[in-house]
Amino acid sequence: MTDPERPALPMAERLADPAEADAAIPLRLVPSDGLDAALEALPEAQRAWARATDFKGRLGQTCLLPAPDGTLSAVLFGWGDAKARARSRLDLGRAAESLPAGTFALDASAAPGAGTESALAWLIGRLRFTRYKSAKLAPARLIAPAGVDADETHRIADGVALTRALIDTPAEDMGPAEIEAAARALAADHGATVEVIAGDALLEANYPMIHAVGRAAAPGREPRIIALDWGPKDAPAVTLVGKGVAFDTGGLNLKPGASMGLMKKDMGGAAQALGLARIAMASGLKARLRVLIPAVENAVSASSFRPSDVLTSRKGLTVEINNTDAEGRLVLADALARGDEDAPGLMLCFATLTGAARVALGPELPPFYTDDDALAGALAEASAAVRDPIWRMPFWDGYEAQIEPAIADLDNAPSGGMAGSITAALFLRRFVEKAGAFAHFDVYGWTPAARPGRPRGGEAQAIRACWAVLSARYGTGAA
């Protein structure tokens, strides 16, 4: 990183101005059950062309219609049937990646309500991580569809862009100091303040577990707690906490190579929190926002913390270390305890925490945990509305005994391997008492294979659903 003090934050492309619509190429959504009507509306030559190219309106199918002079006259984009659309999302992202250069005007008259998601799908489908390799997308632009809040779409797409780029950056260029630099750049963009406590000062400030996990890292990659604050002090308090493990070797319980390959994304929780904060601040959320990121590297050296060590947390609870590869919950515990001291009305925690969550629900359906039924209902409703998948899992009290070892208050890695995502969530809950409502998201933060609107790589998960809840609860000041 050439300037770790002020990196440029990525931004999504912008939708084209509706004033350009008269010169734009029509992009028509065609449901499979509306195929005949769509074809009948075409000139005879174009209708024959669509049939000759076997356009059936299947979801994601594209047909480029030529004008008599050979130029591009219109595009038909298959919208499939209800079953196909229920199994997919962000489908216009396919067109955003594949269409030739030009300005396109979306015609969603045959697919009511598709405009808002399609506009977002277009923008985030065109996001590419270009720090080390240039992108090869044609300069295609989409006119802001009628009825779509273009500014809101841009803010959300920018939040996704930041989250993806932070996760995609390799650990060599995204260590604890660079995570801090990204937070400082975000704060500078929105008039927020940032306070950082790093290295041995963590012990003096009572963040002992953040220090223990990160103390083995090389000079320049010292552990730290990053606190970003924004908004009026008398506004309702909202705290976001994100796991910022820049790279996770597993510590002395060293991961095998196959499990270490994607560990640059172990700071994905921090990336989600910063992406959500970017949306909130740009939108003028009517809240006092605090973002807490414990940023560490779980490295191996003579100073590494060890299995069987007992650590004392910020909250005073002692933790027996039965696996140094269960480090994320340790650093989150200190950060959550700090956030809880302010008794915020709402505290949200994001972390790439357990493989057990992926075994249970796969890579694109993050579980979340909360004891607040009203919050759970709002999150579920928002998830369905904006098609940002999350699934509620239980804080199952029957498993509490599993995180209580013989010689300390808590066990960071219960033996047996069962209910791993639940026991990790129960561990975190022990550090939250004063917050009005609390939810923990066990995200994957990665798209393993390219999907519509989602290139392979780092991914924003749960933040669009969370933003829908935050904006509905507190309101915004954006024009």
Please give the share of residues in helix.
25-40%
Q: Assign the CATH architecture of the largest domain.
A: 3-Layer(aba) Sandwich
Strand content: 15-25%
Could you tell me how far the N terminus lies from the C terminus, measured between alpha carbons in angstroms? Answer: 35 Å
Compute the number of structural domains. 2
pLDDT averaged residue by residue: 96
Please identify the structural class as seen in this structure: alpha/beta
Taking pLDDT < 50 over at least 5 consecutive residues as the criterion, the unreliable ranges are: none
CATH superfamily of the largest domain: Zn peptidases
User: What is the CATH T-level topology of the largest domain?
Assistant: Aminopeptidase
Radius of gyration over all CA atoms, rounded: 24 Å
What characterizes the major β-sheet? 9 strands, mixed
- Which CATH C-level class of the largest domain is it? Alpha Beta
Total E-strand runs: 19
How many helices does DSSP assign?
16
Overall geometry: elongated
Please describe the structure with a list of short key phrases separated by commas or semicolons.
479 residues, alpha/beta, Leucine Aminopeptidase, subunit E, domain 1, Aminopeptidase, 2 domains, 5-stranded mixed sheet, elongated, aminopeptidase, Leucine_aapep/pepB, metalloaminopeptidase activity, manganese ion binding
